[in-house]
What does this fold into?
Amino acid sequence: MKNLKPNFNYSSLKSFRLAKNVWYIMPKFLLHLLACSMAKISSLEIVRSVAKENYGYITKILQKIIALINLGFDQNRAYELTARKISISYLRDFILRFAQAIRIGEEAEAFFTREYTAFISTFKSRFDRTMVTLHRLSEAHSAILSSSILIMAIMVFVSMIWGFSQQIVINLILAVVGVHFTMAYVFYLLSPREHVVSPDARPAKLDALLRSSRMLSMMLLMICFAVLGLHMLGLLNLMLTAFSIIGIGGLAALVGWLGTKWIAKIKSYDKRFPEFISSVAAGLSSLGASLKRVMDDIVKIDFGPLNNLIKRMKARLDIDVDENLCWKLFQNEVGSDLIVSHTAIFNEAIRLGAPISKVGQIVSESAITLLDLRRRIEEILAFLKGIMLPIQSALYAIMGLILVIINSFSEVISQFSEMELPMVVLNIPSSTHLEGLFAIVLTAISIANAAILFFVSGQTPFTFTYYLGLFLAIGWAAYFVTYTFVGEVLKSIGLQSIVIGGG
It folds into this structure.
């Protein structure tokens, strides 16, 4: 029993993450319970059936309940003992209500119908509030993103005029970086958790791409920090630093782009899934035939991206491959968590004897509900991308411009000093020192922004790799081009001649 309770000694963040993951698993878990209860079987058989699926922490709870019952405990007592060790309030309350329903002899289907309906209503309401909060937070982040560089620029120039200590500027830069990472953490706390790719069934190529994406993200971060460290030590000039980060960033963006294309394909499968599963359920229910017979009619319907997968499934059925195996192969080819989980629920409920039409209806409605919530997430994500991509490039360019202006000031001051003219003494910071500080803050902002998009997307695979590589590649290109081009323009104006001529 002790394994059920999260270890709060690690951190409150771990407990929060567990509660958040369970919250977003609950809709599918309750759907599974409801679908199985339609077979009019006992509550214990329902729990045994659902416990075979991977619902993470919830599955562990169900397995503990079954273990206690196998040891001779009464069902009510088993549920109550298990509930005491659960720290997640809504899950604990559900287990206790289930125990009470068993004790008073309430029909399982009626209980799970009420629980599922109530939870989905609460889930959608809370999700709507989350989306409103994320939209307002995105607007706040836009203001912080656009103002942070302006504040840094003002402080750099004011420190030159009034002779502020460079430590103040460094502290300000660290504060700006801290604000951006704090915003990323807030986005993490508030953003929904969504599994687009199934953790249990997915194509081997996608699995390999996922591993390479994770490795490349780690390599990108390590190389960035190593290059920036060498740059600050004076071992790499700005050109080598920029091209190194642009190169590895471009590679990461390419791998991430390939992954996001695959994610987009999976999402296109999901959009056509509700009508597909509804058609299968209608065919099985009305014809009373086998899946093989129903698929003869299904393949004549256009399901868009799913057409090829459906045809392959029919081809396997035509050579008398087992229906369960056909469904598993279909799930592996799709790789979608939504499709894998919903088809598993559909098949398990039918196997237990639930009415096909009723199961098909609730499974289809559940998929439609989750797709609608996904659409809301994508709206916030599109809003953030529309803000971050242009502002990020502009910020890099502005920092390059500031560095050029400071170098130009330094040249002017040195000319006046050589001519021994009366002048206001400016505290010009070291160009190399500023290059290192600017590089650190810009890279940190890129990491924070990529993390924000990753969290808002529901921690969808490849998102962090793609946007981190994209931000670094485009941003450093803008930074280097601005620094080089504007510097050449100022030189072409003849700054030194103007100063000497003025003397």
Notes: The chain has 17 helices and no strands. Confidence is low (pLDDT under 50) at residues 1-10, 496-503. The CA atoms of residues 111 and 315 lie 41 Å apart.
